[in-house]
Every structure is written in C-alpha cells, then in structure tokens.
Specification:
The longest helix has 33 residues. The chain starts with 8 loop residues before the first helix and ends with a helix. It is 74% helix and 0% strand. With 416 residues, it is mostly helical. The protein has one domain.
C-alpha cells in the first residue's frame, strides 16, 4: 500500500490550533442544551460576563476553527491522493475507503457519544471533493469561492423565511401550524419555549439511555446538515487544496506576505464580526437576527478570517519551540483529540458522569476549555514520542488500508 507522505509541519500546527479552537467553540454545546450554542440569552438574560464570553467566542473562534479544519481536511486529502498517484496506486481506491471509515466513525460519534459531530459531514463532503482534486489552483479557488457565494445566497433565503415565519406566527388569526413552525425554528436559533428548556435540561442531567433516545429522534438529521452548510464546507476543502498547491499552507511564501495577509484579513474580519455581534446583541438575540448574524452576515466574512488566521499561525510558529511542537503534536493527533474531548466533556457534563450540565455559567465553561487544552498539550507529544500515530489515527489508517499498520516507534523519527 501507499506509504504516507512526509509531514508538513505547518499543516500539523494549523490543525492543532483548529482542534483546540473547536473545543472552545463547542463547549457551550457540551455544557448547555443545543439551542444555547448560538445565543447566551436562550435560558434568560445573560450576565455581563456571559455576554463578553459569547462575544469573544463569536468574534475570535466560532466558525473560523471549523473553517480552518475544513481547509486542512482538503489539503490533507490532496496530499493522500497525490501520494497514492505518485506510487502508482489508484487515488480513488485510497480515498474512498478512508471516507467510508470516517463515515462509520462519525456515525458512532454522533449517535452514541455526542450530537455535535462533524466527521460524518466531512466524510460525505469529502467524497464530493474528490471530483475536483485535478483542477488547477486558480480553478480550485474560483469554484471554492463560488460555493461560498452559494452558501451566502442560501443564508439570505433562510433569513427571509425566518422573518416570514415570525410574521405568520404572530398574525391575528395565526394557525396552530404557524405557531408550531415558529417555535421549532426559534428553538433551533436560541429562542426555546420554557417547556423545551426544561425538557432538554432533564435529558442532559439524566441517564445515558435518555440521551441516546434523543439522538435517535431524527436519525437522518445529521445528513440534512449537508443542505445547510455542505456548499460552504466543500468550498473550504477546495480552498484548502488550493492553499496546499500554491504553497500558502506549507509556509512557502515570504514572511512579509504572510504578515500582510494576517494584518489585513484578521483586521477586516475582526471588525466585521464585531459589527455582526453588535447587530445580534442590539436585537436582544431575537432568533431571526441570530440566524441573520450567524449564517447570512458571517458566511462571506468567514473565509477572510480563516485565511488570515492560517497566515498568522504560520507567522507565529517557531520550529522546534516548546509550544509550537506541542500544538503541532495535538494537530497530528487531531482525530484522537477531537473524539477524546467529546468523551471527556460528555462525562464531565452529562448525568451519567459528573452531572455539571446547565450548572456552570457560559464564562465558567472556558475554565474547562483551558484544562482540556492543557491535557491535549500534555499527552499528545509524549504519545507520539513512543508511537507512530495517535490511537484513532492508527485504527482509521489500518482499516482504510485493510491491514494493521506498524504502531511502535516514534512518530517524529519516521516523519510519517
């Protein structure tokens, strides 16, 4: 079978930042019901500390880390495909088994561990991304941006639909169906009814069986995410492929270029996100404006921030430095760390574990984030000093290649 391509240090470093950042984005979804992810006002008027925590997360973290991860997924996918072809193997015979097993892992994660999985989504979108891998760099950029524009158009349509739902539900002779449709929408975007708050709190603080039943209430729901954000994810994967081919993600550009990209993109993106946050806060986290802010307004700004963050990470990385090495090791084991955070956080928050669900404030949740980050940095490098792959990376690789891969030996010595 095709040997793994040599590691590209910048990819591991960016992936490490992304997997740590994803936890910071997801922590509210671990510690609260799902509707609290988008709004700090979903269960009452937020405190100043909680509003600051939400605003900081919205401007700095949310969506950007998922985007970085999608960029890196596309780049890594292209590395594997190109490596297979260079060895004379069929690219499809290497790529699609990887996606098939990732789909299995994602299904296990979303149905048995935690509802907020992204792996299943990546597996499905990754199959579509294969169709574009032969495109030249400029074409990858063009198609990737077109897909983001398509996502923006969808966001505009959804925002219009949200305002129509609200108007129909509050019309003088509103039907029961109109009211129910609005309540379902509002709950999704941070405006649940008191009954729904009570129900989800009870499930989170209850046993594993109740949580498992909730995940299976809508078994096709995870596949429906494709319709919501599939175009954006595919666009990011193609832009990640372009970033690899152009040398941007490998650190091949000049430091001066990375510096300007970081300053301009992070600066413009940060100001835009601050404005979007002000829109949402100014409308008291009305579910219509939550959707409008998170999906319609944020989508065109997000790629700018993602590119700026990638440039900034490459610029700040210090080869051989203690922190750079540790973060890169966490990125090299991103699959294991991603699933590991779900196991740790569900045990910490849910009723079958330490039962902290709904008890901590939004601001206090970030104490948990820092503790888990420390754990990631503490265990990833020592593990890779002794083993070639992270535990789940090894299982995925072995299953995809239909043979158990060698495990013992330092990952850094083999550079695979």
């Amino acid at each position: 079978m095709t040997p793994a391509p040599s590691r590209i240090a910048t990819l591991d470093l960016i992936r490490g930042v992304a997997v740590m950042g994803i936890l910071a984005a997801n922590i509210a979804a671990f510690g609260f019901p799902d509707f609290a992810y988008m709004s700090p006002a979903s269960m009452g008027t937020p405190s100043l500390a909680d509003t600051i925590a939400w605003t900081t997360n919205f401007i700095v973290i949310d969506g950007k880390m998922r985007g970085l991860f999608s960029f890196l997924f596309g780049a890594s996918m292209l590395l594997v495909i190109d490596g297979a072809r260079a060895q004379g193997d069929s690219a499809a015979s290497v790529h699609f088994p990887r996606m098939a097993w990732l789909l299995v892992f994602g299904a296990i994660h979303i149905y048995l561990i935690w509802w907020g999985d992204i792996l299943l989504h990546y597996a499905l979108v990754g199959c579509a991304a294969f169709l574009f891998h032969r495109l030249p760099t400029r074409a990858l950029i063009l198609v990737g941006l077109m897909l983001v524009v398509l996502q923006v158009i969808e966001g505009v349509i959804l925002a219009g639909y949200a305002f129509e739902l609200r108007a129909a539900a509050f019309a003088p002779n509103a039907s029961a169906k109109a009211v129910t449709s609005w309540q379902t929408f509002a709950a999704t975007f941070g405006g649940p009814t008191p009954h729904e708050i009570t129900r989800q709190i009870a499930i989170g603080r209850g046993g594993y069986a109740g949580q498992l039943a909730q995940r299976w209430e809508n078994p096709v729901g995870p596949f429906a995410v494709i319709a919501m954000v599939g175009a954006e994810t595919l666009g990011y994967m193609l832009l990640g492929m372009a970033g690899l081919r152009s040398g941007f993600l490998t650190g091949a550009w000049s430091r001066r270029t990375y510096r300007w990209i970081a300053i301009v993109c992070v600066g413009i993106g940060g100001i835009a996100y601050a404005f979007i946050a002000a829109v949402e806060i100014g409308h008291n986290f009305d579910p219509r404006y939550v959707l409008f802010s998170w999906i319609t307004l944020s989508t065109p700004v997000r790629p700018i921030m993602i590119v700026g963050y990638a440039a900034l990470i490459i610029l700040l990385g210090r080869p051989g430095g203690w922190l750079t090495t540790r973060v890169a090791a966490a990125g090299r084991m991103a699959f294991s760390n991603y699933i590991g955070t779900s196991l740790v956080c569900t045990t910490m928050f849910y009723g079958f574990g330490f039962d902290l669900f709904g008890y901590l404030t939004r601001a206090q949740l970030y104490i948990v984030v820092v503790l888990v980050w420390i754990a990631m940095l503490a265990w990833s490098k020592p593990w890779l000093d002794r083993y070639r792959y992270g535990p789940l990376e090894w299982v995925w690789r072995s299953l995809s290649r239909f043979a158990w891969q060698p495990m013992r030996g330092s990952a850094f010595a083999t550079n695979r």
